[in-house]
Specification:
alpha/beta, seven-stranded mixed beta sheet, 10 helices, about 300 residues, 16 strands, single chain
Length: about 300
């Protein structure tokens, strides 16, 4: 099962020639999930080849740099003759404003668009082997973050042990791996735990949107394979970060360290830093031993399983 993350927009409220406003697309084995949609998101999707077959948009809050791409994206999908329904999740209480964005400039999509409000600590989406959960963030408006959390996977099947126990090669291997006991020709019963290892963890992708450092984020991001965290400012503007309900790169690193995350993507970088993010990297890496990086727009990375 592949999981590929494309950073469509990594800048703060004011876009630059290098950084578009916030948007991240996750392609999990063909399920394309879009987190936030700053202005120009549809052009970024064209530019970086993600395709438009998204099934859901997850909005963290109503600030323009996170939602003003919705009207253009909806119209582009309409021009491409989309027929499938699109679902947008947003903090409960903001559904009316999101619906107004969908229908901005008298737009009337020819495909169904469903808008749902969700509160913190809910499963916005539940599929066969993963869910997208909400969590509370600490911004200066009604805001949420989202965590894509995969179910545990089956333990590894020990073929050598199974053969040693006399299990014939064939369907009984599959039955054991599925968790069912099998009976051999001599009447012996082989239990799954004799040949199947412990369950293996799935992956965890966490996207905060805009937030001050928060214990809730550290909790939901525990052992995250990728934490995408607000890092609007460096230490030189820590006071400004606190006043505007954002985080510094160092604070994002501290949260990632508390969470024991594997990788930390520092995003929502203020235009004040233009093309120089060296301070962000240095400050985050002082407090976080994992991989910390500032992604460029268009950067794509694969998220492997923890045991790979």
């Amino acid at each position: 099962m592949s999981m590929r993350v494309t950073f469509l927009g990594t800048g703060g409220a004011v876009p630059t020639t290098e950084r578009n406003p916030s948007s991240v697309l996750v392609n999990r084995e063909g399920d394309r999930l879009l987190f936030d949609a700053g202005e120009g998101t549809q052009r970024q999707m064209m530019r970086y080849g993600t395709g438009f077959t998204i099934s859901e948009i997850f909005v963290t809050h109503l600030h323009g740099d996170h939602v003003l791409g919705i009207p253009g994206l909806i119209q582009t999908l309409d021009f491409n003759d989309r027929e499938e329904a699109l679902t947008i999740y947003a903090p409960a209480g903001t559904e009316k404003e999101i619906d107004q964005l969908v229908r901005a400039a008298d737009n009337r999509p020819s495909f169904p668009v469903h808008v749902y409000g969700v509160g913190p600590d809910e499963a916005a989406v539940r599929r066969d082997d993963y869910e997208v959960r909400t969590f509370r963030t600490d911004h200066d408006t009604n805001s949420l973050g989202y965590a894509l959390i995969e179910d545990d996977r089956k333990g590894r099947f020990d073929r050598g042990k199974a053969e040693e126990l006399g299990v014939p090669v064939g369907p009984k291997f599959s039955r054991l791996h599925e968790g069912n006991a099998v009976e051999l020709d001599d009447g012996t019963t082989v239990e799954p735990d004799q040949v199947v290892g412990d369950p293996r963890p799935g992956r965890r992708f966490v996207y905060t949107g805009d937030t001050r450092p928060s214990a809730t984020v550290a909790e939901i991001a525990a052992d995250a394979d990728l934490l995408v965290h607000d890092a609007t400012f460096a230490d030189d503007r820590a006071d400004r970060a606190a006043d505007t309900a954002h985080s510094t790169a160092r604070q994002a690193g501290e949260i990632a360290s508390r969470a024991n995350a594997e990788r930390l993507a520092l995003t929502h970088v203020s235009s004040r830093y233009a093309g120089d993010v060296s301070a962000h990297l240095a400050e985050a890496r002082e407090v976080f031993d994992g991989e910390a990086f500032v992604p460029d727009d268009g950067e794509t990375l694969d998220v492997p399983y923890p045991d790979e």
